[in-house]
Amino acid sequence: MEFKEWVKSLWNAVKHENFIFSFRNSLVADAYMKLCAQFNKWEWEFRKEMYTWVKDAETIISNFGTIATKSETSDMREFLGSLKSEASTVLSAWETKILNNLTQYFEQTEGHVDLVEGYKEEFSNSAKVLRFEIETGVKYQLEAAAEIRQGMTEIIKIKESHRKEIEKAVCALIDKCRKKKVQMTNRELDKEFKKMWKETLEKLSFSEQKIVNVTDSVSRYLRENLKHRGSRAHQLLTENNLQDFGNESFKHTAESWLSKFKHTTNKVFTGQDHIKGLSDSIIAACKHSVNKQVKKKINYHDNYIQEILRMIDEKLKNHQDVKINIEFEVSLKQHICGFAARKFQKMHEDFIEENDPHRCLTKNKEKFHEDFKDVFHKRDQCQKKAEEFTKSMFEACC
Length: 398
Known about the structure:
With 398 residues, this protein is mainly alpha-helical.
């Protein structure tokens, strides 16, 4: 049985192209693994720092144009350009820091560093690639935040502009009706209002916003996220619909999902506890992030699900003592994305219902109608009183 387990572990390592098997000298392998661990630590610090920086920048962008934000420019594109320039400065500083750390690492005399001197250039290139990767993500997030802010600003302008147009049309209708010499009935007023409303809506330059299928978008980004994981991941994704996931508690089975549990390979119960703790912590963090976005009552953006997938990858990547197989990763991401898709779908629908100018005007049509009739009758009563007062004054004078 021990030999069987050893062969299974060896086969899993071969399938996953475990780089360590390319080393014949255990000292070289150990030195290389230490270098990898150190580089991963620097990478994590870099990513964590830029994550915080982007979140702060997104907050500034979301408040752009308000009293709460002081800016030397009122143009969003110019402001976005200045933020990108600032991001490049921070990114360059971190790239230099990692390269300097790498140089210092190879200057030490302990840990058989000399045995992996040949890999120095490889890790230097990895630092440059890392900077490019993070920079691409940062620019995308900044542009997404700017797009959201501009969209919100435009919606507010449209709503205000169209509200004034409707009010103007209602006032014009009231004046038109008042100029008629005969007393108008409620039915006649209703007819005039409906005609005015139809004509005014046709003049306004907007169309009703359509509800999009957020689940389809989430599924697309989930497939994109897992495409590098090969045909097995693709097969697992196509076996079930994303809508079927995330409704119940996540089920975790260490026997089937734990590829390799270092130090305690034969202790399945320990592995299962570890898997449960890992999955529970990732799910909790992702749910917190989703609920935080929902509370903002803004429209859905694909950037949100990309952020969730990035969060999952970071947490799995930085979990060094367990190597998870593809079944666990796909199942965990399906569970989280299924939950997130439903939350984001409702957030999107609520936002459209509340902010779409066409829906807002339609929803307030009855109020405009009632206000129109109320104002008309009040003006009518005032006119009658004025006429009676004028008549009595004329009779008194005569």
